[in-house]
Amino acid sequence: GRPRARKQIINPDFKLEDLGIGGLDAEFQDIFRRAFNSRILPPEIAERLDYKHCKGLLLFGPPGTGKTLIARKLSKMLNGKEPKIVNGPEMLSKYVGASEENIRNLFKEAEAEYKQKGDDSDLHVIIFDELDSVFKQRGSAKSDGTGVGDNVVNQLLSKMDGVDQLNNILIIGMTNRLDLIDSALLRPGRFEIQIEIALPDEKGRKDILLIHTAKLKENNLLTKDVDFDELAGLTKNFTGAELEGLCNSAKSFAISRHTKSGSVAQIDAATIDKMQITRNDFLLAF
Ligand code: ATP
């Protein structure tokens, strides 16, 4: 086998709110417990156990719940780099062989490094958004005679678990529809860990609101009547993205109150100093 030079890169004492992620503590813990033990263990222990890395992680749930956010932060934690983000439909091409070429290109860098170093010490994280758009085409593409979907799937699988597999990659797939994903993809060695990123509960909503108003608090721009317990109670079924939008709208209402006739571009620091965002600004934002 190849030598393995694992790095211990994750500080276990991190706090999720410092990463700007709210309401996903249990999910994050679950991801670490199920998907990253092999990368967190001291290398010699992982070696002794012959602990196989998880190469594919699937995050599923409604849009705007923080799947991309969590995947980006995971990448930063695992290798200090921004991940490569690709989108399912963009990978598909109607030209013969072009989709497979797209997939191959995605792995070029990781492959070159793996060949050169022969180990997994530099992890490449690839985020594959809208995974279902590619993988639900298995079989159905065949029937229209192109086979494009199947070829793309096979190309991806061969990088993950095939003959030319790489050990220095982690693919984080994302989908709103787990039910559309071909079950062959969910086997060990593939997207073997599936984690649901659901709508936040009341506590989660409060955490997310606090994250997206942290700067306001730091700069004393919130009036005392803004009550985040109340707002969390009023925002049932809101996604993280919608909660962020609510905070932004409240800011817009506060700004328009302070720009009586002039344009927003004319607003000066002195006005901003006096400006505060009130409970009513939040209520107007609904
Ligand atoms: P999609 O399925 O549409 O790609 P997604 O689940 O990947 O959606 P994100 O793109 O991660 O959603 O969320 C959009 C934005 O909403 C984030 O960049 C972040 O600003 C905010 N947001 C979403 N969820 C959270 C959360 N749990 N904590 C803090 N902010 C969040």
Automatic annotation (TrEMBL):
Residues in AAA+ ATPase domain copies: 53-201
Q: Where in the cell is it found?
A: Cytoplasm
The text of the family note is: Belongs to the AAA ATPase family.
Report the function annotation for this chain: Required for vesicle-mediated transport. Catalyzes the fusion of transport vesicles within the Golgi cisternae. Is also required for transport from the endoplasmic reticulum to the Golgi stack. Seems to function as a fusion protein required for the delivery of cargo proteins to all compartments of the Golgi stack independent of vesicle origin.
Q: What is the protein name stated in its UniProt record?
A: Vesicular-fusion protein SEC18
The lineage, from the top, is:
Eukaryota, Fungi, Dikarya, Ascomycota, Saccharomycotina
